[in-house]
Design brief:
Radius of gyration: 17 Å
Largest sheet: 2 strands, antiparallel
Strand order of the largest sheet: 1-2
Low-confidence stretches: none
Shape: globular
Order of helices and strands: EEHHHHHHHH
Distance between the termini: 18 Å
């Protein structure tokens, strides 16, 4: 079976679904740390806190908005398959709700060092998930779709644009949280650390993979 001119192999689909799930597991660890949500979920989590919207539903709304931005950026280069990112947002929302519920079995961080460790685990899972699912060139999450679109339009590395976009998302979440709640809300030191280091972690995972396998992974392929 072919999808977008490439064979739709079991490995390709597995890497895609597995990568998506790893990201939501990272999101769940970031929330459990108590140091703020992961950048990718900071706006949906802020929506949950402000308007009491289930985080899965808020994730879907946020991703639909990002698809619109991606469409504006790519114009005629926007492929029809990318509209399916809205529905992938539903799958991501379900995975997120499931991963967050799994964290109920883990006791909350009782000191700052454990919270930082949870944040580091979250960053690693999110970066590893990106490394698995983005190169499959199936249907990216809208966050990565926008990252790829900006990287293509600006001719800059995916990992660098990822850092810039995460910082922008976190800044928006901070403005929403402070504006409506009068507090940081979904944003904490863990969110800021994630915004600064997730993209960088993806870069180093890519370097390790290149060293071990000799295979270059194209993170901008759409």
């Amino acid at each position: 079976m072919q999808f977008d001119g490439e064979e739709l192999s079991f490995r390709r689909v597995f890497n895609y679904v597995f990568g998506l799930y790893l990201i939501t597991l990272g999101v769940a660890f970031s929330i459990k740390s108590g140091l703020g949500s992961a950048p990718v979920s900071s706006i949906p989590y802020a929506m949950d806190l402000i308007w009491l919207i289930n985080i899965g539903v808020a994730t879907f709304i946020f991703h639909a908005f990002l698809v619109l931005i991606e469409w504006i950026l790519l114009r005629e280069n926007f492929k029809r398959k990318h509209f399916l990112q809205v529905f992938v947002g539903v799958l991501f929302g379900v995975f997120t709700s499931f991963s967050v519920s799994l964290m109920n079995f883990i006791p909350p961080a009782d000191n700052f060092l454990i919270a930082l460790l949870m944040t580091a685990v979250a960053i690693f899972f999110i970066a590893l998930g990106l490394f698995f699912y983005v190169p499959t060139n199936l249907i990216p999450l809208s966050v990565e779709g926008v990252t790829q679109a900006i990287a293509i339009v600006s001719d800059r590395p995916f990992s660098k644009i990822k850092v810039y976009l995460d910082i922008s998302i976190v800044t928006t979440a901070l403005i929403l949280s402070y504006g409506f709640l009068g507090q940081l809300g979904s944003v904490g030191i863990g969110t800021i650390i994630g915004a600064l280091f997730i993209g960088t972690t993806v870069k180093y995972i890519h370097k390790v993979n290149l060293h071990l396998t000799g295979n270059h992974v194209d993170m901008k392929k759409m």
